[in-house]
Amino acid sequence: MEEISSKGKLFVISGPSGAGKGTIIKELIKQIDVELSVSATTRKPRPGEIHGKSYYFVGMDKFREMIRRGEFLEYAKVYENFYGTPKTKVLEKLDEGHDVILEIDIQGAMKVKKVFPKGVFIFILPPSMAELRRRITGRGSETKEVIDLRMSKTLGEIAYVDQYDYCVINGQIQEAVNRVKAIVIAEHSKVSSDIQGILDEFEEEK
């Protein structure tokens, strides 16, 4: 297992589609100093998307080479395209002292957990399955068959909740944002192996 040390903290946020992960993260970024990791993908940019901000858009050959070199914390093939989290970009931000958020699916999160066990894993849940269905239906972009499939998939995803450090129920958005923010703040006050360095500093000041 690869051992990774860092100054900042890595927060991995997952949850079923419709749980409100993206909305929570957007509000969180406005309130505290955290940065959202930018994924790499082999798909073509959509109108309005910016390379390096929306995604890192790379060719299939380049992506495969990055896989061969072990340059991803995690990656997956979705339909005809690959998506992955560039390791170097994340580590650079952490080493600079910035907290980094990964918004990824549960399979990706479990891969990250294997190579970065010091990460903080947060699972976002809707208040109920009925509310989740209402949110997905409200988008107006999915058929009943697709919605039923998403709901079925959600039951399997929830089974992974015990693999996470925290679970936040997103019933009211600001309350959910406050809870995630509290987790970030608390993690920076946790007594860990770094405490010896803090104690050494106090000893030097005597």
Task: Give a structural overview.
With 206 residues, the protein is α/β, with parallel strands linked by helices. 44% of the residues lie in helices and 19% in strands. It has eight helices and nine strands. A five-stranded parallel beta sheet has the order 2-7-1-8-9, sandwiched between helices. Strands 4-3-6-5 form a four-stranded mixed beta sheet. α1 (21-31) crosses α7 (173-187). The protein is globular, with a radius of gyration of 19 Å.
Please, how many helices? 8
Helical content band? 40-55%
Please tell me what the overall shape is: globular
Oligomer: single chain
Output the strand order for the largest sheet.
2-7-1-8-9
H/E element string? Answer: EHEEEHEEHEHEHHEHH
Q: Using only CA atoms, what is the Rg?
A: 19 Å
**Kindly state the mean pLDDT as a whole number?**
87
Percent strand: 15-25%
Low-confidence regions: 1-5
Largest sheet: 5 strands, parallel
| Strands, count | 9
Helix and strand arrangement:
Elements: E1 10-14, H1 21-31, E2 34-36, E3 40-41, E4 56-57, H2 60-68, E5 72-78, E6 81-86, H3 87-95, E7 99-103, H4 106-115, E8 120-125, H5 129-139, H6 144-158, E9 166-169, H7 173-187, H8 195-205
Parallel strand pairs: 1-7, 1-8, 2-7, 3-4, 8-9
Antiparallel strand pairs: 3-6, 5-6
Helix pairs in contact: 1-7
